[in-house]
Amino acid sequence: MSANAAIRLRILHTNDIHSRFEHMAAIAAIIKRLRTEAGEDCTLTLDIGDHMDRVRPETEGTMGHANVAVLNATGYDAVTIGNNEGLTLTAEALADAYREAAFAIVLANMPQSASGNHAPWAKPWHIVEKAGVRFGLIGVTACFPEFYSLLGWDVQEPMEVLRRLVPELRSRVDVIVVLSHLGLRYDERLAAEVPGIDIVLGGHTHHLLEQPIRIGGAAVCAAGKFGQYVGMVDLEWDARLRTLRKVEATVIPVPEMPRDERVAMLIEQASAAAAARLGQVVARLPIDMPVDWYGESKLGNLLAAGLRTFTEAEIGLVNSGQLLHGLSQGPLTAGMLLELCPSPINPCRVMLTGAQLLLALEQSLLPEFMDKPLFGFGFRGKVLGCLCVDGMDIEYDPQAEPYRKIRNVAVGGRPLLSEQLYAVGMIDMFTFKIGYESLSEGTEVQFFLPEFIRDVLLRELLDQKALLASGRKRFVKLL
């Protein structure tokens, strides 16, 4: 190759696949084809986080090992992690899953709290050479310090981390690529405010960029969600001037076929291993435990009671839509529990006034709230449903006007007082203004990780007294 010839390079990228294993074999086939077209030594393959999602049995049943096996077999060079890896798996589980990784995990803004060092399986940046061109890869993930601190991580503001690392790396590499699980608006800020970045590959907000957004000298790219697309960035590198001549990007739709048979076989094996683990019996129910999205039910009451006792609160609250179906008398397996309550949502404890609680209770009786579809923030159900409660007794008139249905509320046998503060055990989703806005206005918020609400529910399902108590009515209709 002459000194002034252009070197053609290709970056393939995915993001927010969320354990859609049904697409992974086809993604692998597309990546293999596109890599062959460009040449193995000229292609870089990256994932931008949220590849794992514990809603899926393959991930839950193997604690992420199935995802790592697929990433290895597909031939990824490097990945960063998203909140679904970082916040739903403990540090120990992440280390166990990534010990099998044949790729680099780049994660610059999440050192360990205790030591200040990065986890042994992660590095803040990684240099990889393709066709003589040195790529500097920096990974950053969304910053949720209140949650990450409970898992032993000191998650840091990514902009400041990148302002420090990009200049350090710039003189050592030819092209800087940021693997950004931060969201589109943050990616645009990175491109505009941090000089020296050539390419931002994004995720987190599930945005699809069929053409790159060009800001300053950077190209911002993203490939949507759920493995529906593979992103492709084609580069021309001027070997004489040591500079990028051209950056072009697009996305490739993922069809059902063809599939990479090696990856398909790995997924089948992982599914079998996960099914065996999730087939283990975790409880035996002496009675049926029904659920109702639009009214009070034993299972809803049980989960609310579990949140109250787990968080040592006066009141327990949860929306019935977290529970996708009821349970029948007999054995309960880990897989059945996952199907019942798949959302990776955590318990929390907040202080709320009586007025804030009353407003949420009134809203929970209205069809427009019960039927409200929800998306994101860990929710894996369909609709909000009604409020399930524990520690409260409520008298209401279903025929009364909206926001005037509730006539009396007692907490621990005493009338609910508008200005009084009450300790409430509920779900972290409510603190994000999802569902009932007044529940997000609480103070002294305390989150509990790594427990999911299905872990709390299982504790109650094993408690015979709690099962019997779930049949007591909390809502009483006034005739």
From TrEMBL:
GO terms for molecular function: hydrolase activity. Residues 292-428 form the 5'-Nucleotidase C-terminal domain. Transmembrane segments: none annotated. The keyword Magnesium does not apply. Residues 9-207 form the Calcineurin-like phosphoesterase domain. Its EC number is 3.1.3.-. Pfam families: 5_nucleotid_C, Metallophos. It comes from the Bacteria. Keywords: Hydrolase, Signal. Coiled coil: none annotated. CDD domains: MPP_UshA_N_like (cd00845). This is Mannosylglucosyl-3-phosphoglycerate phosphatase.
